[in-house]
Amino acid sequence: MQITKTIKSISLLAVASGLILFNSCAKKEDAFTNRKVSFNSDWSFYLNDSIVDKDTIGNTTKWRTLDVPHDWSIEGKFDEKSPAGYGGGALNGGLGWYKKSFKVNAADSSKVTSVIFDGVYKDSEVWVNGHYLGKRPNGYIGFQYDMSPYLNYGEKNNEIIVKVDNSKQPNSRWYSGSGIFRNVWIETTDKLHVGQWGTYITTPKVTAEKASVNFETTIQNQYAEEKKAVITTTIFKEDTKVTSVTQNITIGANANQTLKQSAEVETPILWSVEKPELYTAVTEISLDDKIIDQYKTNFGIRDFKFDLNKGFILNGKQVKIKGVCLHHDLGPLGAAINTRAIERQLEIMKEMGVNGIRTSHNPPAPELLDLCDKMGFIVMDEAFDMWKQTKTKYDYGNDWDKWHKKDLIDQLLRDRNHPSIFVWSIGNEIPEQWNEKGVEIAKELAAITRQYDKTRPLTAAMNPPVNMNIDAVTLQFEKKDVSINPLAGSGVLDLIGYNYAHQTYEHHLKNFPNTPFIATETTSGLQTRGYYDAVSDTIKKWPVRWDLKFTEGNPGNTVSAYDQVQTPWGSTHEATWKVIKKHDFLSGMYIWTGFDYIGEPTPYEWPSISSYFGIVDLAGFPKDVYYMYQSEWTDKTVLHIFPHWNWKAGQTVDVWAYYNKADEVELFVNGKSVGKRSKKGDDLHVIWRIPFEAGTLKAISRKGGKVVLEKEIKTAGNPSQLKLTADRSTIKADKSDLSFITVDILDDKGTFVPNANNEINFSLKGNGKIVGVCSGDPVSHESYKGNKHTALAGKCLVIVQSGDQSGRLELTAKANGLKQATIVITTE
């Protein structure tokens, strides 16, 4: 169709709601905060047939009003025949349209007004008032369009239209989501301003006494004449001014100029994972003694290196990277970004002892990086899951030639000031890694990366860097029959990135005597929360081989939650961590994965629709192995026993305990000791095999004969009541904030019922809405966007979002035959 004709046929007055008036910044101190304002509210949306691309809209099109970020795929039904496949979560893509009507203050007619999209999945095209602004195939990178030449100023409306085409499927190996799934902004600046992602801050020399800080600032002059301006950059620590530097510049008409400045910070407060201290640089541009632009950049001061023998060194201290890989979806919220949802994920990871995040396998939302800066995570920022050679029929490989350079540069410009980022990854399990063409591409990507940032090492996630028969690893090393992955051996990379192959880690210094180690992806252990096989000390490889259909497994597509099931390319959780913790030169690891995610339901296919890899399930409930890591990675005192204690009389049950800060654990059944256990050698858990006897299972950890911790699990009766627990009982009334409410099913004595699977119905009173329900069950086909959900292993989650008014939100949960429960959330 002819898009221009279609755009013009749509009335600019079609959207009565959503009229936005943008005001110029009057106050000096508000200039940088008001330079960019949210453009998320009151969009209209229309979805073409999700299977057949009709690519038409017109005056009769039925639109619905919504706020972005928005993911339309998560609103659909799980579909066995979805073109996205079970790898894509069995949810459909399609082609969607967004439009929004807005006004622009007449006083801004002499300014530059741009629209900023943090991410649109995928193949987005944008028009304003019928004028084509551009296209961006990559769904994960942000982009900006100058709308100024096409805007109406004053009382006349403007209309922006966004076409999002996610109809060509499959285009991802995991669930991508569809739509304007990240934040949208309007930016208004003087014609002389700091450019998009226009600051670059480095700290080349850091000591306890002093840190040098270098600034490179790109100034953009869109005036038709030369301008003489004053540029002042001021460093703040919270609200306290630290230092500033000022410089005069002359910039030509319609030109860009990069200004270099430097300053020193006395006795700097260093950024670390324990204390992620941040500074703020405020860049001001003045014309004729008037400040016309302010631009704020957060940064951190830290010194680090990857050492061949000592691993990762941060501020002179050896730090083991204890990381996880995360996909971009937020479980039942889908791919629509929400800052509080990301923060909750990071809080759960931090509680486990995680200090590192790998952005698998694409540029993340800016909010994730902001939170990692503030919360203290060592981030590996990854650009691509494929290069020119595709992994699925319609993926980014089809756009590689035209777009990869632009996308990589934009990611580097956008992200390079974040102190949490310590590593750039130029690719994940790239097919071309095994040939010289891949080396050629890697050299190009490395040159681009180093052009825009020389302060961080470069890696690629290779599977594996040592090309060998993993099953004969010892024999091969004895014979030295080892070949090096061409990409790993090319000398292009600053760090050798290992995906799996943990058996080879100890030999890294022999194979790569000049390049430090990083485990970019590890483990791939599999579990269903709350399900346990009868025998726990056998290791199972599911599937048997990555390229063979899995025909075995458990009833209901379950996987034992003992740490005993792994993929053939991976390991159990304990196996890889035992190797990593043993050697200083092994800088650290990123586990696949911190959270379950939608799609890629290894080892099963349909009816499974989400992954089993997570240490935490899709709802955010920890699986048992979470506490193994917590006992190893934190200073918390840990004693965790499992499984539950509801079995058949006389059934043999394996009881595991993860513990720390103790010499032994003694287990009791109904007050009778069944023995003491202590970890031997490199053990990470202890085990008892005992017959089930209803009652109380109790564990006591001791050190030097003194009690450290006690934990009990009781046999539960029939489900009788519901218990609601909110992660936060007070949230902001900003139409975005969330309260995550856990539903536990209890018996009449208040004991948790671990095998309950009741369907729970939810209702909400007040100015807010239910935006997600989930149990963490990888096989559930219930909508995440409904008002009911079936519990898994006694638990369910409901997510409540605030409206724009202060008050009370009253959530009620009901289930047939159970006593209902109500909880109140305050919004303010």
Report what the structure shows.
Belongs to the glycosyl hydrolase 2 family. Keywords: Glycosidase, Hydrolase, Signal. Pfam families: DUF4982, Glyco_hydro2_C5, Glyco_hydro_2, Glyco_hydro_2_C, Glyco_hydro_2_N. This is Beta-galactosidase GalB. The protein has 828 residues and is mostly beta strands. Helices cover 12% and strands 37% of the residues. It is built from ten helices and 49 strands. A hairpin with a 3-residue loop joins β12 and β13. The chain is globular, with a radius of gyration of 28 Å.
- Overall residue-averaged pLDDT value: 93
The number of strands is 49
In angstroms, what separates the terminal alpha carbons?
48 Å
Residue fraction in strands: 35-45%
Radius of gyration: 28 Å
Structural class: mainly beta
Number of helices: 10
Pick out the low-confidence regions: 1-32, 470-481
From the spread of the alpha carbons, the general shape counts as: globular
Q: What is the subunit arrangement here?
A: single chain
Give a short account of the largest sheet: 8 strands, parallel, barrel
**Sheet with most strands: strand arrangement:** 22-23-24-25-26-29-30-33
The proportion of residues forming helix, as a percent range, comes to 10-25%
